[in-house]
Design a protein that fits this description.
five-stranded antiparallel beta sheet; about 20% strand; about 350 residues; elongated; 3 domains; DNA-binding; Beta-Lactamase; Enolase-like, domain 1; homodimer; alpha+beta; about 40% helix; Arc Repressor Mutant, subunit A
DNA sequence: TGTTAGCACTCGTCACATTGGAGTGCTAAC
DNA sequence: GTTAGCACTCCAATGTGACGAGTGCTAACA
């Protein structure tokens, strides 16, 4: 069977009306569609074909049709080819308080959730390939030293280091100098065991305590592996009857509360084959890696703020999601994020 | 009408069975209760009295009785008098990673949620009355200075300060000395406008830039007003049919997602009149300050880790909550928290 | 050959009546 | 004061039938 132009128009019409209403759509409804000028009977024949081809299906014998996963997939794929998204302005949002990454990300997901009526999520930026700007050790008290680490992108991390014996001011000063002359400008990955052991040699004196401190610093630098995930709008699931029965809603919202499982939806994007659009990833129904979301669709996009700070942002909603709008918004948002730190 | 001993036993029996089943309880059920040896007819008479007194009510004419808010209230009040809670061990939980407050709190709410099957929340400790341990300014680049502030309780805060003109090393060193000699040992409240303006005078030179820096530091110190709230187990609401219809569940879970509204449930405890127990606060049904929770009960308890770090932890569940157990666990938990930092 | 009108058929939904049982209140007897 | 018995109430579960939306098929039409 061939997918001709008329079938495609009908399929689009079915999907669009289903997106709006959430209810199976019948042949008569489609026959009223302006672009088409066919009787319901003809539509029925075409629908029958489309069903055979696997793009739509019937919940029960005498109901209308709803799109299948394959139908959505076709729709989304053609959509992304056709569309080159116009850029609307979301920037005002960004301007407030750039200084604290966490707040920014929370604002972003909240904004997204409010504007799409779906559940949203974002991963904090990974710090790979980020260079160190400086490190500062300070004496807190007899048994504790505070390490403050600042990256090129102004992300600040603290680490309290407990020691059995205190260190005197001089040693700390020396260590600061040592750390800064040797590590500044290096990326996180470049600071590994061998770098550290070289430092240890160079330090020489007090080698036991010093190496304790250095180990702690190295650990703090590399610790960033557990990426934070921020979410918002989990209760939006209730807006879609097909997801809001107790069992499903409970599972979905739990997943959003736990946050960790979401990581599997937000893996670093696959290698972009065709440049531009490849950073948008769409999972439809069964395609999603999370079992809880087999009745949902997931759209994610990656952002890259430069300086090695990159992450993913995404939304989760019913399969009858307004893909068009969602993809548009995500593209736009990531573009804004990309430019944010380049200024 | 007098509340005699038999009425009290019957009321307790009604509440307990209702807590378990969630369904109106009839006279026959109660008549089987081991402590009582009465026929269902007698129970009915007593129930009729209890209803007149306002402690129980009938959802409809031919249904069993359920406890009213007043009934729960009486139950809880007597409960808290009677009970002196035995201390079970939750401590292992605490031992892992004390160093990061945030992780600890997240663990605590998760633990609570898992053990009670209710939704749980905790406020991060306020920093009032906490003394400063030290402040460290560092030059990040031409236009930025990083302020690191450490409190007596080892809570660390960073603040990036942007300036139009850079500062030279010497000035920063002087400022560090100035800040540390004047502010160390003071509590957060003691550092107010007048303290700062005194500092500004003392600094003298460069007064415009210096005052910018000082203002930023003061702001960072006092900024702690927006207390973080951590939550867990919001989806536990689904476990109770009376809360899991779409509208109610959606509202409740939204409230838990937003977090801010919960603050009104976690206000600093009222002045303890009778010492020991007064830190437990129970809201039943309409009593709670949040409208969304008028079908719930809320139990909160305060913890005080010493050094001015205190906060509240609480749980939210259906009115038929296992008050006995919950109060026990909360008492125990807060006791553990109280002792945690005293070691 | 493609399109359309018509018709019988399917099946879920809604309104309504029916029934069973749990629970009550009241009364009379112990 | 306690209890057994009985009539009564009302919810919840179940069944029934009408309705309507939607289909597939067939036959007629352009």
């Amino acid at each position: 069977m061939q997918m001709d132009d008329r079938k495609w128009t009908i399929l689009k019409a079915i999907i669009k009306t289903y997106l709006e209403t959430g209810e199976p759509v019948g042949s008569r409804t489609i026959s009223k569609y302006p672009d088409l000028n066919l009787s319901s009977a003809t539509i029925r024949n075409e629908m029958s074909d489309l069903e055979e081809m696997g793009y739509i299906l019937q919940p029960h014998t005498s109901a209308g049709r709803i799109p299948s996963d394959a139908g959505y997939r076709l729709y989304v794929d053609r959509m992304m080819e056709e569309k080159e998204q116009e850029v609307t302005e979301i920037r005002e949002l960004m301007v407030q308080r750039q200084d604290r990454m966490e707040l920014l990300l929370k604002q972003v997901v909240k904004f997204l959730a409010a504007n799409t009526n779906y559940a949203t999520m974002i991963t904090g930026p990974r710090l790979h390939h980020t260079r160190l700007k400086f490190i500062q050790l300070s004496i807190v008290d007899d048994s504790q030293i505070l390490a403050v680490i600042v990256t090129e992108t102004n992300v600040v991390k603290n680490r309290m280091i407990r020691l059995e014996h205190g260190l005197d001011r001089e040693t700390v000063l020396k260590l600061n100098l040592l750390l800064n002359t040797n590590l500044n400008g290096l990326t996180i990955e470049q600071i590994n065991l061998s770098t550290i052991s070289k430092l240890k040699e160079e330090a020489g004196i007090h080698s036991d305590i010093v190496s304790q401190v250095l180990d702690a610093v190295a650990e703090a630098i590399n610790q960033e592996e557990d990426v934070e995930i921020y979410t918002s709008g989990a209760t939006n699931f209730f807006k879609y009857p097909e997801l809001s029965d107790t069992a499903k809603a409970s599972e979905l919202i739990s997943t959003f509360e736990e946050k960790h499982p979401l990581a599997s939806l937000m893996l670093p994007s696959e290698i972009g084959e065709d440049g531009e659009n490849s950073n948008i990833q769409v999972y439809i129904g069964q395609e999603t890696p999370l079992d809880t979301m087999k009745d949902c669709s997931v759209v994610t996009a990656s952002y890259d703020m430069g300086g090695g700070m990159y992450g993913r942002v995404g939304i989760v909603g019913p399969k009858r999601m307004d893909y068009d709008k969602v993809i548009g918004i995500l593209k736009n948002l990531t573009q804004q994020l990309d430019e944010l730190y380049k200024k």
